[in-house]
Amino acid sequence: MKSIKKPHTIILISGLLLANFVSSARAFNESSIHECDRQAYHSFFDDKIISNVDSKDIDVEKGLPACREAVEKHPDISRFQYQYGRVLQKAGKIKKSFSYYKKAAEVGNVLAMEALFTIYDTGIKGLVDKDGNKSFEWLNKAVDAGSVNAMHILAVSYMSGINTDKDIDKGMKWLEEAANKGNVSSMLSISSVYIAGEIVGKDINKAIEWLEKASDKKSVDAMFVLSNIYSDDTQSYKDLEKSEKWLKKAGEAGVENSDVLIARMYMNNGEVDKSIKRYKKSAKDGNTIAMYSLGSIYFNGVGGIKKDDKKALKWFTKAANKGNSRAMFSVAEMYNRGTGVKVDNMQALRWYKKSASKGNVDSMYAIGAFLSFGIGVNQDYKEALKWYKKAADRGHNVAMLEIGGIYEKGLIGHPNPKLALSWYQIVADRGIVEGMFRIGRIFAHEDNRDMKRAFAWYKKAADKGHAQAMYELGFAFDTGLGVEQNSNHAFAWYKKAAEFKYQPAIEALKKLEEQ
Description:
Blueprint: H1 19-27, H2 35-40, H3 60-73, H4 78-90, H5 94-106, H6 110-122, H7 132-144, H8 148-160, H9 168-180, H10 184-196, H11 204-216, H12 220-230, H13 240-252, H14 258-268, H15 272-284, H16 288-300, H17 309-321, H18 325-337, H19 345-357, H20 361-373, H21 381-393, H22 397-409, H23 417-429, H24 433-444, H25 451-463, H26 467-479, H27 487-498, H28 503-514
């Protein structure tokens, strides 16, 4: 046995009940259900005695007294011990929870065994250290007790070398054992192995066989993989009708917008007419994603379709009128830019506001820009700042830059370079080059000049292709501002900026060449 490796991150505390626990559970009828069951029951059997209670839904105040009474009155029923452990864990009483998991596991409760497997696999600070040997031991006990879930975990452990020596043959054996007993995860894993062809020989037919078995158990993942297999443009078994069939099955299994996925599949495979036909059918049924997709097709001229702004606006507007926020934004953009329609700033702003009310971050930014530049409205930096901040709160990088710009330029009071810097730093940390350049600009400003730091930030931005940053580096070397004057370095940086058609650099380069 090897020492413990990385924690097993895949596994949740879950599994199947032990055979003798099954018989006792099945013997329970509605009148035999205890209040502890109502508060903390957990099972994977089809004939559950009561609905499962998710750990996040456990009511500690009700569950603690109920399950305490259950274990006192029925000390021989392991499920009450396990359920009491769940409630105690939710209550933060980890040590006591662990003891009840152990009691339940020692008398054959598989769920408790899997709980102990997970606890030892990850460790609990102040209670137990991570222990690969004990984790693997409890996993094997759950397997011996017949847990199909544990069999799948054991297979993954062998194939990955987690808490044991890596053994592909054993891993495949347990995958097949679990799959043959109905474990969908194992079926998917086996199909992946045959598709990849790295561990065993590539065999698409075997992969399809296992994926179809998983699909029979309503695995949407399997249906999607089958659809992708049959739409693979590089393979001889490509069959778009079969691909459509599996996407339809996914729809029957509850996947939303499967018709749109079918249309997209045909478009990706160059079957433009079939794609548009399906988009239009779905749009007729009221699907706003299909309407928006049709708008995008005509707007961009996708798949050989001629670009048609009027048709694009028609479909975007249909989707927008039915509440699609992306379509609302697209309609606003078309009115804003005069694409397929006359420029109408008021209409654009109306649609931006509708879209923003549904959470569209780009529309929030656009409203801020309208207010900031006085487009169709009175210029109002304070109100613009509010909208920029709404967009920034949702991660919009340009909105953050605009916020920084408002503070840097003092557009709502005195300039505040520190506050501006904090916003620019967020954007720079995300790898946005303009943020790096603006940090350099703040440090280069005469009111808080620190040319060493300014130069460092300009260099970061320049190395990522920022033309003005290249120019500023050239200017620093040209004038000796913060660095030792060096005409050769100045020429080199001006030249780089000039290659990006940055006019000040082109002019500076000419002056150097004339000297």
